[in-house]
Amino acid sequence: MEGKKGVVNSELWHACAGPLVSLPNVGSRVVYFPQGHSEQIAASTNKEVDVPSYPSLPPQLICQLHNVTMHADVETDEVYAQMTLQPLTEEEQKDFYLPADLGLPSKQPMNYFCKTLTASDTSTHGGFSVPRRAAEKVFPPLDYTRQPPAQELIARDLHENEWKFRHIFRGQPKRHLLTTGWSVFVSAKRLVAGDSVLFIWNEKNELLLGVRRANRPQTVMPSSVISSDSMHIGLLAAAAHAAATNSPFTVFYNPRASPCEFVIHFTKYVKAVYHTRMSVGMRFRMLFETEESTVRRYMGTITGISDMDSTRWPKSNWRSVKVGWDESTAGERQPRVSLWEIEPLTTFPMYSSPFPVRLKRPWPSGLPLFQGLREDELCME
Amino acid sequence: MEGKKGVVNSELWHACAGPLVSLPNVGSRVVYFPQGHSEQIAASTNKEVDVPSYPSLPPQLICQLHNVTMHADVETDEVYAQMTLQPLTEEEQKDFYLPADLGLPSKQPMNYFCKTLTASDTSTHGGFSVPRRAAEKVFPPLDYTRQPPAQELIARDLHENEWKFRHIFRGQPKRHLLTTGWSVFVSAKRLVAGDSVLFIWNEKNELLLGVRRANRPQTVMPSSVISSDSMHIGLLAAAAHAAATNSPFTVFYNPRASPCEFVIHFTKYVKAVYHTRMSVGMRFRMLFETEESTVRRYMGTITGISDMDSTRWPKSNWRSVKVGWDESTAGERQPRVSLWEIEPLTTFPMYSSPFPVRLKRPWPSGLPLFQGLREDELCME
DNA sequence: ATGTAGGCGCTACGCCGACAA
DNA sequence: TTGTCGGCGTAGCGCCTACAT
Question: pTM score, two decimals?
């Protein structure tokens, strides 16, 4: 598993990244959105910038994914992925076989739990209160003949550090607790109330331990290295150079920094853009992650379809759908989404049709997405 | 002083930056070296990258400095400067008046001291041992009639946080110590033995407090935002775009990240490049910072003059001088320096001559540095 | 089922001189 | 002059149960 230094346990990475995050397979085709990438940089640096537009850079690049590695920040344990993408020539776009990589949301580990830390969990006054079902599911069973039942747990984090905890079942009423060892973990990881920890009991009978920090309002980036303008220009220039020369380039994808997956499975993209009817007024649903790290669907209505940034990124499909949400719990959900993020609520079958339905409106005719690639050459399952 | 948020105390910033660091004045002319900037990025990210060359970007840009602000990283207290530079058109390069901004090393504060922390200073076992002369110079005088003499000190750091310390003069033999309050400071700033602290007693009778971390071997950058390749391309593209349109761009200068000052006072540059004889075999001296935060001169001999990177940056003056050092204390000093960093040891007067001596070799004739700017138009004091 | 608080033992933090370098 | 140590008193860490939600 640890072939390269800095590459982390895949199971644990996905658990920390959350149930909605999926990474494309190595070798598969993907669509890269500079605009989405730019959005992530803006979210990371907390700066909106006004960079010059890059007319030579199309709003999306069809790429082959040469490499994906999973990493975690040494300081914060924040998970991120490094991807090496190579833009495909028109020839290569034509001449392909498509692995059926739909990028279904990665399966979360079987035996795991995630708990948001309470004030008591993080205070120096005591230990960690383990939810009962969680303890029974992911911790090795206790010897209940002892009084009180207790054992030592050793859990490994993303950096292969081992943490020892005393797991004890006591109190009135009885409960599972982590005592000795817990506070050093909390202070080493600098956890505060509101952050989450997650434990995994994997198939090799190893205990893995991850951390998810609460969304601090300002994740103030150490922008002391390069200006955010230069970052934006850099990403655009790197992509443009790669596109012009069909040479590989590298991006970092930080799934928890901002809700913008800017590298999309090719087939998912094609399905959404070419094989799905979308129109104003249409109802849809979309998956979101809950506080408890599970998924739930929110429903909404399409209120408009238009370019998000018509000057810089004309005819881009990135966040081209304006939506209204049924549950108006503040403005916490994006007012704009991308076609492939939502699932239209229709009665007729969409994907099984042998005759793909070309999107009629509102896209301008002849949208120049896959030059040289005929639609009926697409291999859909 | 605190007009803008994030802008820090100038005195304290300079003390933390060290005696050799000077910032050009706002409004003055400077020379910007993309190559040097690239070097700093490489040092910050610990990655050498192989970026495509940018033939349209000259190895140096003459710019006007529109803005300089001093900052400090919230996490690490690392000082850095943000500069807004505007490349000058040929017309503007001709039509100028030059403020006599030679960028002499900034004067360090009068009453200050800097101490490298010992194991005892940072252990949980005790407080901070204040060097006697330092305490007498920068701390308010103690009332020696009390037994023991003691007082409470309040010092402000770069982020305007206040830290309280008990300052006491006791022991046998007598010594100055900081006791209560010291350990919380050490743990809050995460100081370890080898790091330095510095105190300033300024003219407003305020006590300022700064931190300098030891050069940890690997200052592993959180590169989880943007690839180092994109950073390099970004800096080059941003500079190229600015040069092409004569529009302002922003850079960050981190004086302690790496010994490469990539924004140089214009007059200093002109002096060094056009008005100084340099030849192989010539002796010179150069300033360095000592452990104790003072300057000292090292002597050396020029062993060669050539492009550092002849493919990417032909005819650049950045680190064009190969040197050998008299004291060969390991390879801790750069084997290549730039002309303006060194002071040639000659007997004839150099700067006062009314007829500037054009550098004969090894520069190729007609080096295209200041197109449209005749040398005798330069205004040297 | 689980968050918080009171009780209290004991570790280690932190203040002190004594040395020595 | 100043770094480190042995000495100690005590704050607060951390283990326990009680109680409330």
Answer: 0.84
